[in-house]
Design brief:
This protein has a single domain, classed as Rossmann fold (3-Layer(aba) Sandwich), CATH 3.40.50. The two termini are 12 Å apart. A 7-stranded mixed beta sheet has the order 5-4-1-6-7-11-10. It has a two-stranded antiparallel sheet with strand order 2-3. It has helices spanning 28-40, 70-82, 84-88, 120-131, 168-174, 184-190, 220-232, and strands at 3-7, 13-15, 21-23, 44-49, 91-92, 103-106, 135-139, 162-163, 194-195, 205-208, 211-214. The chain has 234 residues and is of the alpha/beta class. A hairpin with a 2-residue loop joins strand 10 and strand 11 (211-214).
Length: 234
Amino acid sequence: MSKILMVISGADSLKLADGSTHPTGYWAEEVAASHQLLRAAGVQVDLATPGGVRPTVDPISLDGRGGVDEAAGREFSAYLDSLTDELAEPLPLADVKAADYDAVYIPGGHAPMADLATDADLGRLLNEADAQGKTVAALCHGVAALLSATAADGGFTFAGRTLTSFTDEEERQGGTGENTPWFVESRLRERGAVVETGAAWSSKVVVDGNLITGQNPQSSVDTAARVVQALGAR
């Protein structure tokens, strides 16, 4: 059985450009839909957060405020409820080794911008996973977490790699707008990544070797499916 480590942000707020605090957390669909597909494919999924803290779901990812219809919100909520015990006691990132897993999978929500993007333990884990040829997958704002990985020369581990992420256009249309502290797409480009984007709010998945990235919540199922495909090809 393949094993995946799903790394979820432990943050519940994001400091915006104007200094105000924006409540956030992980995006329900990105965790629930991804986890459900991976488990249905027979994959063991372990959860991890910085410090082993219980992650917080972004409340707007369960209702119309986040563009989620009522039926889908109920479905995501019910699935997350089935993971209550696992979410209550995730593994601490500091205790995890890439050698124990076949893939690392990072869902989004704005929360990864607040902690995972600069988390040294995650950076170490991603460097290990990439060096070992393990699948590294990230989704939406979760792609910001790749920024935690620094190469031996001080550069970005994933510089020169082709990927996608939540786009600047999507951030301005349906994210935190111009009050965003930094834009994920732009920051990745600044750090040397080659960013490919699809139409706003459409599913877009980019595969570059062992690196698999999805653009937005609409890409959740397709991203997880590509990870399953990659694991099957190992």
